[in-house]
Design goal:
By secondary structure, the chain is mainly beta. About 5% of the residues lie in helices and about 45% in strands. It is globular, with a radius of gyration of 22 Å.
């Protein structure tokens, strides 16, 4: 057999994943920024002009979506180009957006408390239903895509079964009943964090100064912990050991979940596990893939990267000059390499315009109908090349 030389004096280490933080704000910059979380370097600035990006989310591995701050509009980009790939008009202004883990479905929550679900590949509106009594402030999907969770200013947290929401046997405007409704918060719910795994849990925080840990499959309240100030954001590590909670006074609290179910921390203990992070409300929190870095965003417009063990800020990102509207940490997309190299643009196929209620084929689409052109049977992306197979005309 072949011989393999091994250097016993050299320690083998695994390379850290390359990750980016994607953020938007309410400033006049019509831009979604992407920064490297390890270096703080700006990698891209996705333009929404004309428009003002609000809540943003990653759609699959190739696309970025943002709801407009002022208009019933969705902006869509591919990672390999900074200009908008397409825009879709929605039935109402969206307060929140979220995609299924596989990028097949896109969910939106409106200022009026409605929720919408689209099939991305066709642009068809699968479902529109009344979900809350007030604006849907945040949406999240479990790692398997089985559960859709929504929180609102009405103080409710609702869990939706995606198999019911996406069931083609129902009409698009047919009512949907939640699998469960959590009413334990007494004031507006500001954020939710959902873990992956076969038995996912959800952490919610509210202006009522409490955070609550839930079992999604059973709907059981596992723990409720009170804090000395209103809570505005949260995130969980994947092992469900610690929760990080952002507050309205600019501090971040660390909560040990292995103890919180037994007792609630007193004010002294809460102070010992808190550190000043920003000069205004901590509106967003996210963890790196290896959970050694915590990324926080604030209404003061700043983004900070923190070392988990020392609570020390390792870098600041100052791309925004106004309150942040969204912040997420994702693995660096492959399309961004094409953007930085300038080797090739438009490597990703455009997505269909998303339909509004009552539309079967979106009227804004510039594509010809199936009676005028051959039907697309298969589209594959292999080695940076799109391969298409059509039926005979």
């Amino acid at each position: 057999g072949s011989r393999v030389a091994v250097d016993k004096g050299r320690k083998s280490t695994m390379a850290r994943p390359s990750e980016i933080v994607v953020s938007t704000s309410i400033s006049d910059h019509s831009t979604v920024f992407a920064h490297d979380i390890r270096t703080g370097a700006q990698l891209a600035a996705y333009k929404a002009s004309p428009g003002r990006p609000n809540q943003a989310c990653v759609l699959g591995s190739d696309y970025l979506v943002a709801a407009d701050l002022r208009k019933p509009l969705l902006h869509i980009w591919s990672w390999d180009r900074e200009n908008t790939l397409s825009r879709s008009i929605t039935s109402a202004r969206l307060a929140s957006v979220c995609a299924s883990p596989d990028g097949i479905f896109l969910y939106g929550g409106t200022e009026e408390g409605e929720m919408l679900a689209w099939e991305v590949s066709t642009g068809s509106l699968v479902r529109k239903w009344n979900a809350h009594y007030s604006a849907v402030s945040k949406l999240s999907v479990s790692g398997s895509g089985s559960w859709i969770l929504s929180v609102s200013k009405d103080g409710l947290v609702r869990v939706w079964d995606s198999s019911v929401v996406l069931n083609a046997a129902f009409q698009a405007d047919e009512a949907v009943s939640p699998s469960c409704t959590w009413k334990a918060h007494s004031l507006a719910v500001c954020d939710i964090s959902v873990t992956n795994g076969p038995f996912p849990r959800a952490l919610t925080v509210s202006l009522d100064r409490t955070c609550k840990l839930w079992c999604i499959s059973t709907g059981e309240l596992l723990s409720s912990v009170s804090f000395p100030t209103a809570l505005s954001s949260c995130c969980l590590d994947e092992l469900e050991r610690f929760a990080f909670l952002g507050s309205s006074d600019g501090r971040i609290f660390r909560l040990d979940l292995r103890e919180s179910a037994v007792r609630a921390p007193g004010s002294d203990e809460a102070e010992d596990n808190a550190f000043p992070a920003h000069t205004a409300t901590v509106s967003h929190l996210a963890l790196s893939a290896d959970a050694d870095l915590l990324i926080s965003g604030s209404e003061d417009g700043s983004i900070a990267v923190w070392d988990i063990l020392s609570f020390q800020a390792v870098r600041k990102i100052t791309a925004h000059n106004a309150a942040l509207r969204s912040l997420s940490v994702v693995l660096r997309p492959r399309g961004m390499a094409l953007l930085s190299s300038g080797a090739r643009a438009n490597a990703f196929a455009p997505l269909p315009v998303l339909a509004r209620p009552g539309e079967v084929i979106p009227g804004e689409m510039l594509h010809a109908t199936a009676t005028q052109t051959p039907e697309l049977l298969l589209l594959l992306h292999v080695d940076d090349t799109w391969n298409a197979w059509f039926s005979s005309a």
